[in-house]
Structure formats: C-alpha cells, structure tokens
Amino acid sequence: MSKAKNARYSETIKPNRLIGSLALALSLPLVVAACSSSPKAPAPKAASNSAATFVPVTHNGAPTITMQNFSFSPGTISVTPGEVIKLVNKDSAPHTVTSDAGVAAKDSFDSGTVAGGSSGTVTAPMDPGTYTYHCKFHTFMHGSIKVT
Ligand SMILES: [Cu+2]
Fold first, then answer.
1. Taking the complete model, does pTM exceed 0.85, yes or no?
2. Which fold has domain 62-147?
3. Percent of the chain with pLDDT over 70
4. Which of 7, 51, 52, 131 is found 20 to 30 A from 23 (Cα to Cα)?
5. E strand spans, the chain
6. Distance 46 CA to ligand 1 centre (A)
7. Where exactly are the structural domains of the chain?
C-alpha cells in the first residue's frame, strides 16, 4: 500500500518538475537575449574610451629576455628607448647580453654576468633602431633589441 502511494506520489510530482524545467528553459533564452541586446549600444563607446586610456599601459610587466638552452628568447625584443629589460637565466651556465661591435658608444649596452639560475637587467639604448647583441661567454648566442 505504501509502495503504491509512493509511486503515485512520484507520478504527481513529475509533471511539476517538467513544468519547472520547462519554465527554466523558456526563461533562459529570454535572459540571454536581454543581456546581449541591451549592453550592445553603449559598449562601443566604452571600448573606444578605454582604448585611448590604456594605450600607455600595454606592457604586462617588464619586457623579459629568457636565456635558456644557450639561446635568447625572444630572438628580437621590442622596447621603448631606455627601457629596462629583465633577463632571466634558466641555464646553469652564466650569460650576458652584450651589444655587438660597431655600436656607437652611447648606444652600447652590457648586462654584465647573469649567473646561472639568476636574473639581471640591461637597459635599452635611447636611440631608435635595431641592436644586435651576443653573449660574452658563448659568442654563438645572438639576439637583437628593437628600440621604437
Ligand atoms: Cu652565454
């Protein structure tokens, strides 16, 4: 008897659940439609405003050259005049970022020794241009710094 009652009870509750989920399914597209249609008009204005505001803040932290497996990454890094570039040495050997011969004295740069597993910095030249550099200890290691 109680089994039958339970069965009957669950049968009566089923339509309610169905209606509940139907109502939910019907209301969801309405909510999505309401969300996507109403902010569309003011969105472009906000985007153009923030684009102008955020232009100087595009750098996500300091520009970084990684020294790993006896190579520099990225091979060419773009920076602004006089910007400080972070150097991260992931090798156990020491490396340097040293400007190649032929660079005018005022545009020369040398990070000094960045010991294995440690980090350092080098300051980019002030004059726009592309400057090639090498590692003092491993002259086959090359990279370039593009100042714009
Ligand atoms: Cu090296």
1. no
2. Immunoglobulin-like (2.60.40)
3. 59
4. 7
5. 64-68, 71-73, 76-79, 84-89, 98-99, 119-123, 129-134, 142-147
6. 47
7. 2-56, 62-147
